[in-house]
Amino acid sequence: MLQGCYTAIVTPFRGSGVKPEVDEEAYQRLVELQNSAGVSGIVVAGTTGESPVLSHQEHCRLISMTVEHAKCQVVAGTGSNCTWEALELSRHAQDAGADATLQVCPYYNKPNQEGLFRHFSAIAERVEIPHILYNIPGRSAQSIAPETMAKLMEEHSNIVGVKEASGSREVWREVRRLCGEKFVILSGNDGDTLELMRDYGARGVVSVASNLIPGRIQEFVELGLRGEFERMQREHRELEELFEVLFIDTNPIPVKEAMRMCGMPAGGFRLPLCETGEEKRRRIQQVLARLGLKVVE
Predict the structure, then answer these.
(1) The CATH number fitting domain 4-227, selected from 3.90.226.10, 3.20.20.70, 1.10.150.20, 3.10.290.10
(2) Residue numbers annotated as active site
């Protein structure tokens, strides 16, 4: 069952620049942190993991490492705007032992809804493990329509849910109406988790914040799964400023900055991503301090 907190884990690099190496030792330490916190799952090689700048070899290596070391479900980010590329990565994820894949809406080339249906169908027909659609029009410049999600779910039993990052209540409402209660909705934004779980029956979140405070985000989601929404609302108010500051710059820049401030081995960035400015760094430090997190940098 897909429910709970799924950490969209960062990829640590040895420094910043054109192509710093992936720091595999640091990555294993980050996976162990998630294991210790008891999160429901790890999403590897997603946007937060800087997947656009990973080579195929690095992408596949990270998936295999996560399956080897994680003590929770592993969801492999294997989507692409190229169907054959998504297929290759998804087959590797299945062979490596991943529990599911995350399939982003194809970006930049902006297929129409029939193209989206054929794209996701081609993957579902050839790779048997469960697939989660990823609807994020802010990055992909195209949306997966709720009607297309419903058609895909009806045609393919292994298309089981969506990571919803549209930010649109109208879309959330239509997804639930057309796809029914069995279709898993996971919040694609930490700040939307309360509303999506309380009002639209979402089952959890693919979280950026849980890189930093995994145990607390897991507990936050469990409140919602138990229907304790008043307590969840209070916790949301406590965490809301963190949810906002982690998107003060392009993800994953702020969360990596925050992790490094707290002594976690988040590593650097590959271009075109780079460090944030000093004003934003000070803002991040202020929020961490207010949450009682120890800043060591």
Answers:
(1) 3.20.20.70
(2) 134, 163
